């Protein structure tokens, strides 16, 4: 099963690149011109995200480097410990919605320290795979179209992350403890 | 909401740094964050340009329409404000498929294309998110990845005897998150008033 899904992942993009232009050509589309016409927007779309990302990543960077995140972890861990949630993985949970790279760094460190097949190693692996960098994605996606009022998008995004976190703790406790 | 979170991170960060007697860390961190943001955006230029070209071809060939028609029953429920044959639908579907397959490089440009198309459908204030955008991002950030390749790679690197043991638990946890995302999105959409 894993091999099958891996093969699909490997082939998905090359096949798309083969089939899309081929079918377009067969339907009488002038493929080169159409590609260039579409690609023309690429530069402005990417550059438009700069101010939004700068704003968000500066705040995240300050929050992290100042030690404020450690304070938050310190405050939260006595509440979470009785729920089967080891305090070691809390920095990962706090960092995950903010920065993908930082969260991955924390996960790697925990796996290296406790071993990939330990309870903590498996828990943090599951958390890393099942949650997303919600703030980063919202900033990037909304920024690319100039939206600054996110309405309820942050609430539903964080609710999903929190649910995945609780579900990770639950299922890993059930299966691997 | 985003205003409070943003300001909160900065104010709390500076206060803690000051209390720890290392307030100069803030300046360096701010510049590092800005540097990382600009690099990320610039790195996106190449890949977005490329995928925008491919998407235009797919659209001209009628493939986006065909794909949208295929998953219409699901999308009609999730995106009532988006016409079934609209290009936004095709981009949303391709973004979610790329996410499920763990193809981050393709997922981001597709997602940005989807946002542009959704913005074209925005009948209200262009600076305010529409309901469809919120639904799309709720799905996007909670989406299932069948094979979390990065973390499996790290597990292999540190000598795991069963690196894929976490695939099942990951899918379970993601499924829970995604269910809540869809339900929350529906409830909040009604609560915040229907628009788009």
From TrEMBL, chain A:
InterPro entries attached to this UniProt entry: Gate_dom, SpmB
Protein name: Spore maturation protein B
GO CC entries: plasma membrane
Transmembrane spans: 12-32, 52-73, 152-176
Pfam family, one: Gate
Superkingdom to which the source organism belongs: Bacteria
The organism of origin for this protein: Desulfofundulus thermosubterraneus DSM 16057
Keywords for the protein's UniProt record, in alphabetical order: Membrane, Transmembrane, Transmembrane helix
Statement: the UniProt record of this protein carries the keyword Chloroplast: no
Domain Nucleoside transporter/FeoB GTPase Gate, residue spans: 47-146
TrEMBL record, chain B:
The Nucleoside transporter/FeoB GTPase Gate domain, residue ranges: 42-154
Pfam families: Gate
Keywords: Membrane, Transmembrane, Transmembrane helix
Record bears the keyword Membrane: yes
Membrane-spanning segments: 6-23, 44-68, 88-115, 136-158, 164-184
InterPro entries for this protein: Gate_dom
The protein's name in its UniProt record: Spore maturation protein A
Organism encoding this protein: Desulfofundulus thermosubterraneus DSM 16057
